[in-house]
Amino acid sequence: MSNALEHIAIIMDGNGRWALSHGLPRTAGHKKGAEVVIEIAKAAKEMGVKYLTLYAFSTENWKRPKDEVDTLMSLLRQYLSKDFDELNKNNIRICFIGEREMLDADIQTKMSELENLTANNTSATLQIALSYGSRAEIIHAVKQIATNVKNGDMSIESIDEKSISAMLYTKNVPDPDILIRTSGEQRLSNFLLWQLAYAEFFFTKTAWPDFTAEELKKIVSNYQTRERRYGQI
Ligand code: IPE
Ligand code: IPE
Ligand code: MG
Asked: 78 CA to middle of ligand 1, Å?
């Protein structure tokens, strides 16, 4: 028996430590890490994985030193303008989840343009979590539901898992089957708290800039040996 696999979510961690261990500035790790994004997105598509969600920048990451945030934003600008073309050529749809109003206006425009450009791509969907925090996402959903109830558009009785999922940024995407975190840390750091309820977790010591399609394949074959019970027997 094999487990269905539609969606892989990855916390891409360890860029800074990877760089320092190579005697490079932290920003060099982010640069290498961004290249790995393209490789892994293509590999996942080739493996038949329909959805890939990558945690690129958290709401808490805004608190990092300004020069690191600035470098991350300029890398993002570069990828949005040019490097993601390759994913478009691979028929991959790109969408973003998170608090986009926190990002500079030109970045927000580029994000919408890329979403529109790739909207009809059908091979796979790459969801990039940018300025994303799961608690912020849940607060947003609760406010929306409360407003709907107040306006009489929704009854309290009708609030269920489905209606809450439908209010999240991830509303059009099934919950992840696999969560991977690189770099040895074993925590969620405010990522997809609701959506990961029944995901299978994999923690690897590999830093994100060293993560490969080969390692992804190993994780997927290990996943196939796991028994997902969903509380049943
Ligand atoms: C992940 O790498 C990328 C971002 C959070 C933007 P880090 O920058 O967290 O690298 P470490 O964990 O400090 O090594
Ligand atoms: C989580 O990594 C966020 C991203 C990978 C984008 P962090 O490096 O920010 O998380 P903590 O601080 O180790 O929990
Ligand atoms: Mg980190």
From this structure: 19
15 is catalytic: no
Question: Which of 11, 13, 191, when mutated, tests ligand 1's pocket best, judged by the most ligand atoms within 8 Å of its CB?
Answer: 13
Task: Please give the Cα distance from 233 to 230 (Å, whole number).
Answer: 8
CB of residue 189 inside a 6 A radius of ligand 2: yes
222 is catalytic: no
pLDDT at 103: 98
Residue 8: predicted pLDDT: 99
- Residue 11 tokens read as 């916390």
157 — phi, psi (to 5°)?
Answer: -60, -30
- pLDDT, mean of each 10-residue run, the chain (233 residues): 94 98 97 97 98 98 97 95 94 98 98 97 98 98 98 98 97 97 98 98 98 98 97 94
Coil, strand, or helix at residue 93? strand
For 209, which DSSP code?
A: G
Distance, CA of 208 to CA of 39 (rounded, Å):
12
Q: Is 12 in the pocket of ligand 2 (CB under 6 A)?
A: yes
Say how many C-beta atoms besides its own lie within 10 A of residue 222's C-beta.
Answer: 12
Superfamily of domain 7-133+176-223 in the CATH hierarchy: Decaprenyl diphosphate synthase-like (3.40.1180.10)
**Confidence at residue 1, expressed as pLDDT on a 0 to 100 scale:** 64
